[in-house]
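Try this one yourself first.
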């Protein structure tokens, strides 16, 4: 039975001439798990919001949306709330109460569910998602991964027939993302709930899905079983970069055998088709560009034995942190949700002060800088939530405020100039925020998850831009969950664990020994940190007879 049918759906935002969606059509059977992918701004978020009537943007819609055979417009508010669940990209966007159990009960209370049934559903859901240990806690106390699990639980406690998710793992570290996807797969398998999830990176989700829908420029250009779609994507497709590393490697070396969809399948495929020596480890060369004599320059940022806590007597968020960012260096900092990466970035920007230890910026102690001097002297920060930078009603006004001329734009934002910043996709908001931050021409750039919500093409453009800025002498601290981006971009990488930086080193050395924070290519071919390196190794390592 069809749970969802989208028939020739087109949509144009209010005040816009060009449609955001163009005659999109697809169906989902009851109990199906489907993924939508495509480049930043292709219409994925717009499509999902249109499927959830309460979240639909203003504009002109054409075509039909059928939920369980009924026109979505005919559903009452109560029916829509019960039938369709929704999980957004940012964990903090959806929590509305002050306790975990209140959050689970909130939707049921609004539906008027009897208390006895409500208590049973809340208890079952808390156990299913492993939320018993934080049942009485405030959502603000939870890590990003746990908070997103709470959002998933709150959306599914009402047992919707259709669950929509808009890049729910974009803000999660690799371990938390895997836990979230495992819970989602179990939910689909054990309850038969129909799931439609938009994702830019399919590394851990593609093998779990039964259907993949590829979008480009507002159209659904390819759809079908994941292996079939992976094989039929044209060379240079914008969706190719979203595929798991194993699938990209399979395409890069000639599509020999069946396309692997995850690391396990990829390892078996390599063993079946390539010589054993292809899998032997190698130190390789650092992915970041090394420059002779750079170490002799004074550091842009030096942190010595710095500790920070939010409350006197509270636990240390950062503990005796030592970190040095050299002039003209990109340093990537990885770590789990709640490990203190954002806190460290804010401390480096002078927004908060450590209670012990020392911070130096450009050779000058932080306490010697006066208010406003840091920004004028070239320290800029891209926050994890780009919306905190937006104050105006249009992209054009935001750029005018920061003095960024149209001819100076590092990215092509012309099609977005008259849009409200809050109407942009998550990826487009990230590009706007980065453009605004770069307007100040900083000497030290602090980037907190700069690739969140961006497709592989835009991640590549940002990588090249950061490298060009580095050549001009800019120093960067890059906080990221994206191990592949860090491996391809950074000169050095480090892991923040229990408030201290561990195992800092050049990308090959750092990722060679990693297990859960490894670049995906390193899991397939030891010693390689990019798919291009892995493909080169396989092709030169030879094939088994």
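Now uncover the answer:
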């Amino acid at each position: 039975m069809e749970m969802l049918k989208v028939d020739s759906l087109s949509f144009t935002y209010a005040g816009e001439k060009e449609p955001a969606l163009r005659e999109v059509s697809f169906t989902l059977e009851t109990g199906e798990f489907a993924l939508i992918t495509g480049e930043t701004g292709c219409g994925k978020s717009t499509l999902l919001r249109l499927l959830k009537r309460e979240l639909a943007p203003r504009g002109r819609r054409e075509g039909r949306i059928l939920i369980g055979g009924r026109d979505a417009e005919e559903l009452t508010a109560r029916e829509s709330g019960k039938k369709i669940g929704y999980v957004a990209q940012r964990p903090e966007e959806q929590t509305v109460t002050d306790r975990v159990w209140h959050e689970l009960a909130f939707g049921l209370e609004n539906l008027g569910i009897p208390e006895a049934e409500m208590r049973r559903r809340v208890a079952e859901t808390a156990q299913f998602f492993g939320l018993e240990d934080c049942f009485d806690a405030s959502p603000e106390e939870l890590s990003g991964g746990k908070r997103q699990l709470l959002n998933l639980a709150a959306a599914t406690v009402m047992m919707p027939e259709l669950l929509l998710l808009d890049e729910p793992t974009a803000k999660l570290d690799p371990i938390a993302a895997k836990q979230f996807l495992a819970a989602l797969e179990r939910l689909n398998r054990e309850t038969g709930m129909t799931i439609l999830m938009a994702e830019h990176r399919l590394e851990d989700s593609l093998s779990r899905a039964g259907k993949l829908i590829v979008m480009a420029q507002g159209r659904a250009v390819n759809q079908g079983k994941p292996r079939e779609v992976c094989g039929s994507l044209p060379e240079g497709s914008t969706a190719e970069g979203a595929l798991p590393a194993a699938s990209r490697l399979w395409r890069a070396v000639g599509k020999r055998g069946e396309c692997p969809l995850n690391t396990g399948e990829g390892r078996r495929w390599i063993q079946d088709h390539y010589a054993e020596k292809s899998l032997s480890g190698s130190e390789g060369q650092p992915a970041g560009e090394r420059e002779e004599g750079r170490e002799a320059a004074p550091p842009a940022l030096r942190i010595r034995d710095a500790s920070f806590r939010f409350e006197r007597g509270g636990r240390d968020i950062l503990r005796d942190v030592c970190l040095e960012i050299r002039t003209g260096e990109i340093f990537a900092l990885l770590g789990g949700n709640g490990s203190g990466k954002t806190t460290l970035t804010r401390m480096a920007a002078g927004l908060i002060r450590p209670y012990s230890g020392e911070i130096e910026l450009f050779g000058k102690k932080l306490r010697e800088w006066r208010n406003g001097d840091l920004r004028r002297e070239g320290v800029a920060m891209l926050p994890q939530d780009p919306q905190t930078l937006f104050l105006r009603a249009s992209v054009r006004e935001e750029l005018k405020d920061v003095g960024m001329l149209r001819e100076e734009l590092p990215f092509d934002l012309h099609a977005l100039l008259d849009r409200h910043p809050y109407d942009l996709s998550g990826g487009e908001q990230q590009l706007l925020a980065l453009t605004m931050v770069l307007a100040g021409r900083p000497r030290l750039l602090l980037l907190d998850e700069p690739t969140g919500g961006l497709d592989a093409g835009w991640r590549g453009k940002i990588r090249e831009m950061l490298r060009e800025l580095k050549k001009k002498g800019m120093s960067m601290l890059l906080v990221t969950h994206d191990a592949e981006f860090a491996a391809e971009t950074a000169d050095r990488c480090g892991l923040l664990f229990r408030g201290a930086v561990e195992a800092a080193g050049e990308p090959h050395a750092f990722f060679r020994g990693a297990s859960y924070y490894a670049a995906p290519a390193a899991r397939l071919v030891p010693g390689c940190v990019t798919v291009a390196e892995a493909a080169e190794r396989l092709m030169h390592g030879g094939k088994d007879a």
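Discussion: Residues 283-293 have pLDDT under 50 and may be disordered. Residues 88 and 530 are 30 Å apart (CA to CA).
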